[in-house]
Amino acid sequence: KQEVTQIPAALSVPEGENLVLNCSFTDSAIYNLQWFRQDPGKGLTSLLLIQSSQREQTSGRLNASLDKSSGRSTLYIAASQPGDSATYLCAVKGNNNDMRFGAGTRLTVKP
Amino acid sequence: DGGITQSPKYLFRKEGQNVTLSCEQNLNHDAMYWYRQDPGQGLRLIYYSQIVNDFQKGDIAEGYSVSREKKESFPLTVTSAQKNPTAFYLCASSITGGWDEQYFGPGTRLTVT
Fold this sequence. Notes:
heterodimer; A: mainly beta; 6-stranded mixed β-sheet; 58% strand; B: 113 residues
């Protein structure tokens, strides 16, 4: 059974820092990996989707990488802003429409 | 505007009562999903449906039921058999049940006392 782990559970950084969020998964047989943002009490907003054949995806200040063989993905946020404060979740899709989520990293960017 | 709507945002029920959570999408997506989110845990799949009149159990289907009579609607009923129903419930959809992105609704917070 696929297990998805996100470390650290919480992260606090000063505004302007570049930062990396980590996601690891136990089964490398995946279809895709998706990074989401969740604001308190709200639904999930998709940030980036990486297909299993891809190694990275970029959107603005965000860059997500995927290394299937090592079971890892990273989300890089450049020049962080207070508005980036949220919980970031990664989710891995495997066989039979089976999507597994990590518990998330709660990011706080201090002005 | 295209999107997924969930209602209500907050729901309160007494223990022993069934309650139905609404999920509607106007994205013309074939697949729809229900997840449960508890503090400090990842989302867990309750049920999903890849096409009208068909649905499959997820990891934690016990105590829940669904129907998919229309493409745009996928209501979730939390029955009295669900032992710990207080949670944040999220509905999602995707174009198909395959490799594409899932889009999420705003969620319903259910509190059972």
